[in-house]
Known about the structure:
- The chain is of the alpha+beta class.
- Helix content is about 25%, strand content about 30%.
- It contains three helices and five strands.
- The protein has a five-stranded antiparallel β-sheet.
- A hairpin with a 5-residue loop joins β1 and β2.
- α1 packs across α3.
- The longest helix has 16 residues.
- The radius of gyration is 15 Å and the shape is globular.
Amino acid sequence: MQTIYSFSEIIKCESGALLSSVKQSDAAEFLKIILENQFHFSKFEFIAPNFKTVEDVERIIGKLNEFKDNKIGVNYGLWIDENLSGLFTVNSTNWEAQTADVGYWLIESATGKGQ
């Protein structure tokens, strides 16, 4: 029996939020929110790389998407009210052992809204 492993390109959440596969066309928006939220991120010991240009972010997006191409992970942009608000990742997936590393970050205005 062959098992096929795949990830959905888009996941719609009950709250109305949307997880969408990270695309190169998202690079400018990612750069904007990362630069705007550096202080917020520092509170959580998360320091985004020293991005200076959209091309810097495009290179990272390319590397992140290699996980998907190799079927070992996936990366989603989190969109709330049509605004990019974070990143959700599943990487280092081991299908046989059923394990993976999961991570996320949210911009400050998207935090504290859990239920």
